[in-house]
From TrEMBL:
Keyword Metal-binding appears in the UniProt entry: yes
Name the record gives this protein: Isoprenyl transferase
SUPFAM superfamilies membership: Undecaprenyl diphosphate synthase
UniProt binding sites for Mg(2+): 33, 221
Organism: Arthrobacter ginkgonis
InterPro entries listed in its UniProt record: UPP_synth-like, UPP_synth-like_CS, UPP_synth-like_sf
């Protein structure tokens, strides 16, 4: 039986009070999965599911800002997703563009695109670039928008950029090999300069990362939630944070 909204509100406030600010993750990655299935179950067009999912993203970022989370990375569209039908992609790109406008209106979010922007329509790519520039000095929540993103592609792009920089400095291949280590590659990732994600959340019950933050997630904690993304509630988020707090992080040991 569905509980009244005010009961959920009371429960959520109780859960927030029980969280320890010092144990919250600095960086949270989220695979916002389940929009299409949600629409199908609701008997609605796929675009409606994507729109409700976009609305949920805006709401979710508010929760994160309230808890003073530093960085959130949203996995919205993978390189593999670029093979969907042209009609669905066109609608989805429009929904993403409108969502970016809403993020810009918040006034205190720092928005950064992470992905292969050259795969996106020129208008969306330009909007992401402008938003990154205009919000670059914002001091609030740092939001990475992963659109046209692939974890393997990110690593390949990082190595390519590293090699081009080395070539520009006149380094030989042997010299590059002698100086190459994990820290150096990290300095060329899309998320360079940011803390690696402490917690990765995926909705819709799927228990895989689908190439999300492949390099950065080496020591992340994973939390898989059964709820489809449009149905993801604040108490689902708080349960993920509570679960994270209760884990003993070993960082590979």
């Amino acid at each position: 039986m569905e509980l009244p909204a005010f009961v959920y509100g009371i429960y959520a406030r109780k859960m927030v009070r029980e969280l320890s600010a010092g144990k919250l993750p600095r960086h949270i990655g989220v695979v916002v999965d389940g929009n299409r299935r949600w629409a199908k179950l609701a008997g609605a067009p796929t675009a409606h599911g994507h729109q409700v999912g976009a609305d949920k993203i805006v709401e979710f970022l508010g929760w994160c800002a309230d808890l003073k989370i530093e960085v959130v990375t949203l996995y919205m569209l993978s390189t593999d997703n670029m093979s969907r039908s042209s009609d669905e992609l066109e609608q989805l790109m429009g929904i993403i563009a409108n969502m970016l406008d809403r993020l810009a209106e918040s006034g205190n979010l720092r928005v950064q695109p992470v992905g292969a922007l050259e795969l996106l329509p020129a208008s969306l790519s330009a909007k992401l670039d402008r938003l990154a520039e205009t919000t670059g000095s914002a001091t609030g929540l740092h939001v990475n928008v992963a659109v046209g993103y692939g974890g393997r592609r990110e690593i390949v792009d990082a190595v390519k950029e590293l090699l081009r920089d080395a070539d520009a400095r006149g380094m030989t291949a042997a010299q590059v090999a002698d100086t190459l280590d994990a820290d150096r590659i990290s300095r060329y990732l899309y998320t360079r300069g940011q803390p690696d994600p402490d917690l990765l959340i995926r909705t819709s019950g799927e228990q895989r990362l689908s190439g999300f933050l492949t390099w950065q997630s080496a020591y992340s904690e994973f939390y898989f939630c059964e709820a489809l993304w449009p149905d993801f509630r604040k108490i689902d988020f708080l349960r993920a944070l509570r679960d994270f707090e209760n884990r003993q992080r070993r960082f590979g040991s």
